[in-house]
Amino acid sequence: MENKFKFYNTLTRNIDTVIPHEDGKIAMYTCGPTVYHYAHIGNLRSYIMEDVLEKALRYVGYDVKRVMNITDVGHLSSDADTGEDKMLKGAKREHKTVMEIAKFYTDAFFDDCKKLNIKRPDVVEPATNCIPEFIHMIEVLLEKGYAYVAGGNVYFDTSRLDDYYVFSSQSEKELLVGVRDDVEEDVNKRNKNDFVLWFTKSKFEDQALKWDSPWGVGYPGWHIECSCISIKHLGIHCGGVDNIFPHHTNEIAQSESYLGHKWCGYWFHVNHLNDKSGKMSKSKGDFLTVSLLQEKGYDPIVYRMFCLQSHYRKPLEFSYEVLDNMSVAYKKLVKRIADLKADGTVDEGKFAEYKEKFCDAISNDLNTSMAITIVYDLLKDDTLNDATKRALAEDFDRVLSLNLTTAKVENPAEDTEVDAELEAYILEKIEERKAAKKEKDFAKADAIRDDLLAKGIVLKDTREGVIWHKA
Ligand code: AMP
Ligand code: ZN
After folding, report:
1. Distance between CA atoms of 415 and 460, rounded to whole angstroms?
2. Pocket of ligand 1, candidates 41, 75, 242, 270: which has the most ligand atoms within 8 Å of its Cβ, to mutate?
3. How much of the chain exceeds pLDDT 70, in percent?
4. What is the DSSP string of 27-61?
5. What are the pLDDT digits (tens) for 369-402?
């Protein structure tokens, strides 16, 4: 098949055309969530854009196999092996076992994905299912002299590599050598950037999950899981930009040393979602989830549209004002599509013409905002009949997944129309809730909100005060 799908490859720092090893087939590996907490909408920005990448590749004709790991062990508070295991931290926070936490948040993650129309990957692999494979890979790295045992742990020896900072330009590399002064000293490491392949003695105190290994009872480092799982399926390797260093840098170091040759050629990274105080992160504790957006009355698909309207390589700043505008735009869009007449036949010529434009947009470094503009363009094109417009919207939604032809239609203008009696009741309840909050009676405030929701009314707290609309 013709190869014209291109995207920005972090490894080559170029917009590269994808050339698969096997004609027509592409494997994609996505770094999955660390399941110690809910995914925040920043994490989900990465998964939305990776989902669009997968669907775009399928749309242009590739047979895609998508693989994702679930990090349920080995990811310490700092990405550079310091601090506590995040899973253990989650378990302690909730007085549960690590496996209970892993199950709960893995399910919660896939629930969120479902709400955002993110397809479940073909293969989902929890790290704890693959321990013997990690041990084998570490044994080979030791045999080949790329790893060493110190203080009971096994470390990767980065001094054995000619080019460790593969993702950086020459001038960036010069600046990076010897960085990581912020990282607490591990006296066992021979070089600053060495990283742990297998923990035994250090970081061990009350580690819940541990396995027997040739180096003693312990658990794997975070990077080894992604190398080991993805090595079987590559591909394009995906993640958020914070994964570039050290996670993906270390994955390349150990995978290429293990294999003895160059490994993954395509790296796709999604930039961050920020809030006013900077990068949204789970460790900050105070973060936005899909459920919270729903509680505030937003359709999760509006958040998907918000992500698609911006390019995946640009940082994206979240605000409720923009989401409110997106919500109105989305309602209008699906209404316009729903209002298309059902009769008539599809004009094949016009259909192909628009399809080509759409393919060009998504194949050109995943230009999703252009793809959405094409939907608006076709709706206002007088030379297209309604049947063709509807067929195109349906077809493009295989990639966009915005429920363009299936969403429940609401008239945005009629959103706040209720009878006077109900309106008076709502306003009274809003005042009551305000008073309850002032008295810190949050249970009562929540009960009022739930009572209104049961009556089909959603309350939204904004900086300007409380607003409401019909559910
Ligand atoms: P984690 O669950 O922390 O392992 O992260 C899951 C994914 O979300 C990784 O690919 C991260 O790179 C990505 N990620 C983390 N924070 C953000 C953010 N604020 N915006 C976009 N992606 C993020
Ligand atoms: Zn990973």
Report:
1. 14
2. 242
3. 92
4. EEEE---BTTSPPPHHHHHHHHHHHHHHHHHHHTT
5. 999 999 999 999 999 999 999 999 999 999 999 9
Dihedral sign computed on CA atoms, order 126, 27, 6, 367: negative
Q: Contact, 337 vs 24, CB < 8 A?
A: no
Structure tokens at 27: 């494997």
Is the separation of the CB atoms in 164 and 116 below 8 Å?
Answer: no
413: left (phi over 0), alpha (psi -120 to 50) or beta: alpha
* pLDDT score of 399: 98
Ligand 1, residue 272: give the atom nearest the CA. 20
Take residue 60 and report the two structure tokens written for it: 């242009």
Residue 239 in contact with ligand 1 by CB distance below 6 A: yes
The answer to whether the pTM exceeds 0.90 is no
Q: Which ligand is nearest to the CA of 264?
A: 2
What are 83's two structure tokens? 């601090």
Q: How far apart are CA 359 and CA 165, in angstroms?
A: 34
Please state, rounded to an integer, the average pLDDT across all residues of the chain: 90
Q: Which residues, in sequence order, are bridge partners of residue 215?
A: none
The alpha carbon of 4 is separated from its chain's Cα centroid by a whole number of angstroms, namely 25
